[in-house]
Every structure is written in structure tokens, then in C-alpha cells.
Amino acid sequence: MNTDKQRIYNGDWKTLHPYSGSAPTDLYYITLANKVLAAIRAVETSLEESDYRKIDETEQKELACILTAYFEDIISQTGIFQAFTRIHGKRFGKPLPFYTLDEDYTPGEINIEEVQFLVWHYHMQLNNLDIPYSPILDTFAAIASDVMEIFETEYESAPENEKLLQYFRIDEKESHNLYALHARFLWLCTQSYLFFNNGFLLEDQAESLAEEAKEAGMDEQIPDMVNL
To answer: Which candidate in 54, 80, 86, 121 could, as Cys together with 47 as Cys, close a disulfide (CB 3.0–4.6 Å)?
Structure first.
């Protein structure tokens, strides 16, 4: 039986979203995230406690939210993952690294290779690249396969998150406002589902700078240093 701490709630889901308050679609996606969590947990339960691939309950919840946020991104056409695959395609000649993409791969829609990439990416970020996980690990493939079944079932009926989409709609005035653009770029690069680990790294760097400034007697300059 799942305890309250083992389920995903609104607070868990909101950490990957830039807006305040709730969106009308949040309940749907939180419910979906818990289905994804159950699929992840089923694979993780089969692993020994000492298995280097195993992640704990908190990490399972994070991964479930990330994969569901990817699904929400595709459904809502906010274009976060599509931008990543487009840029990767321009640089390296294919939308994704590692995987051989066949005719079933459809840009802009949900794809099992993208889900598996995100599972691998999460594990790599979780360990700050210290453990060189293979992107084709059987556990990653199993999670991707089971989660993809859930996504395919929901794909035609899933609602768009208009509130999230609106966040990226920049009017003419905002397009010339550096601070408005900076806020969006900062969220995208440090708090979105694709780059949220950057936020933790940025916090660590800011704390280190603050400590160094204190030791050097430069307390008054801490805010400017952290902001930079």
C-alpha cells in the first residue's frame, strides 16, 4: 500500500512549473504522474537494494514528474523538448543522441526513444555525471516501455495546459524587456523538467560565492556576486 509520502501531490508537480497558483489541467497531470510513478516503481522494485541503477522513492517521484512534464509539453505544444531535438538535429544530424530512429519516430509527438533518453538523462544529472550510465540499460528501456504504454493510452484525450503555453507567449512590449526575457530563460534553463538540475548546481555555486565573499570580508558585495 502506498503511503502519502509515496504519492505525487500538487507541491511536487508545481516545482516543474513557472506560474503561481494552479492550472485547470494540474489535477489531470498529477493523476497521470502517479500512474507513471507506479510503472517506475514496478521496475525499481525488481532491483536489489545494492544495484547501482536503483533510485529511492523521492527520486522515483522526481522522475515520474519529469516524464509527465515531457508528455504535458508535447500535448500543450510548448516546444521545450522539440527545441532540444531541433538544435541537436542541426548540430549532429539526428534529433536524439544514442538511439537509432526508425520510421515510427515522429517529431513533435511522444516517442519511446525520447522517454528513454529522459530516463537516462535524469540518472546522469542525479549523479552529476559521476556514474557513466549506458543510455541503453535494460532498466531504462523497461521504464520507457511501460510509461509509453500509459502515454499512448492518454494521448488522444490529454488536455493542453493553456496556462503553461501562455507563459511562453511574449507580446511586443515584453519582447523588448530584458528582465522579462531573462526570467523566462532562467526558468527554462534551471527549473524546467529538462534542465532542473542546473538550478541545484546554480544554488551550490551561489552559496560557494557567498562563503568566499564572507571569508574575504566582502559581505556588502554578496548580493551582486550571487546575482551575477
So the answer is: 54
